Amino acid sequence: MRKKFCLICLMHLIFSMPLMAKNLRIISYNLENLFDCENDSVTNDDSFTPEGAHQWTEKKYRYKLNNLSKAITAAGEWEFPGIIGLCEVENEKVVSDLIHQTQLKICGYQYVHKDSPDRRGVDVALLYQPQQFQLIQTQFLKVDLGAELKTRDILHATGVISNGDTLHVFVNHWPSRYGGELESQPKRNKAAQTLRTCIDSLFNTSPFSKIVIMGDFNDYPDDESLHIVLQAHSPNDSIEFNRLYNLAIPLNEKGKTGSHKFGGEWGMLDQIIVSGSLLKDSSKSKVLPNGLTICREKFLFKESSTGEMPKRAFLGTFFAYGFSDHLPVFIDLKIEKRE
């Protein structure tokens, strides 16, 4: 009888406890040409074969996989992040190898990937822990640049997080600046408009939609594609549920740091953008005050004539045994739930 009474008291205590908080870490990472060693006749990957310009061997491939898993683990502060958006993966095989053939295999990640029409064969992908993000639906948004131009799709994954909230996650890798910034700008504007159309549809269905947009945008937060076309505002502005806020803007304004270094200057090409519903204090799922963070573990850097820079994997066609020319960036969502 006493045991039964104690059990009833314990259950009453549990269900009368206030909502407890747990964090969901969301990472965006450009992996810098994660190619396997096999020649794909459909894409322009000849350079990444043992006989190609990169002399890309199984040994080098495995070394890069292990380096990337180390970087991802470090970005999780030596735990495993709940959601990871990846850029520059060649195919499903390399995504599978990353989560099954490295230290990430103990985590039980699942993934979303689809071959895109990009001529080089580089795609985006999403890794997620099912206990933190229960996948409901996926779609791939085609960025139509015309018959002769091909680029990556935008990945849209919808899932339920641990407190029951629905989260929309978008992974992007917008067209590069190859051929000149101004000349290539319309391509990125087109990607932004494609994404904006989908966002408008979500907001029309529910202005309280919880949205996370991440990736390598090949533009900076104050460029036309992000600031005007996508309409991604500063998180220092007044917060409204059905608007987008670029958490990279405060870092971009500092001008002394970034996720990528080109021509001796840092820049924020890698960004995470959220809907206002994830910034409201009243929300059960909200971004922690630290906002967007750049992973700056020392082993990810090397010294150069312009100071420290990412310890990249490739210098031209030479494999430098590094990680990537981009640094991982991440946010933490505070998830209130009953334990």
Describe the structure.
This protein has 339 residues and is α+β, with helices and mostly antiparallel strands. The chain contains six helices and 20 strands. The protein has helices at residues 2-16, 58-75, 92-100, 181-205, 224-229, 249-254, and strands at 20-34, 83-89, 110-113, 123-128, 133-141, 154-161, 166-173, 210-216, 232-233, 244-246, 260-262, 265-267, 270-275, 285-287, 293-294, 301-304, 307-310, 314-315, 318-319, 329-337. The strands form five sheets. Strands 1, 2, 3, 4, 14, 15 and 20 form a seven-stranded mixed beta sheet that branches. A hairpin with a 4-residue loop joins strand 6 (154-161) and strand 7 (166-173). The chain starts with a helix and ends with a strand. Mean pLDDT is 91; it is low at 1-20.
Descriptive keywords:
seven-stranded mixed beta sheet; 339 residues; 23% helix; 6 helices; disordered N terminus
Low-confidence spans: pLDDT under 50, at least 5 residues?
1-20
What's the number of extended β-strand segments? Answer: 20
> Largest sheet, described in full?
7 strands, mixed
Cα distance spanning the termini: 26 Å
What best-fitting shape do the alpha-carbon axes yield? globular
Q: What share of residues is helical?
A: 10-25%
Helix-strand pattern: HEHEHEEEEEHEHEEHEEEEEEEEEE
Output the structural class.
Answer: alpha+beta
Tell me the layout of helices and strands.
Layout: H1 2-16, E1 20-34, H2 58-75, E2 83-89, H3 92-100, E3 110-113, E4 123-128, E5 133-141, E6 154-161, E7 166-173, H4 181-205, E8 210-216, H5 224-229, E9 232-233, E10 244-246, H6 249-254, E11 260-262, E12 265-267, E13 270-275, E14 285-287, E15 293-294, E16 301-304, E17 307-310, E18 314-315, E19 318-319, E20 329-337
Parallel strand pairs: 1-2, 7-8, 9-10
Antiparallel strand pairs: 1-20, 2-4, 3-4, 5-6, 6-7, 8-13, 10-13, 11-12, 14-20, 15-20, 16-17, 18-19
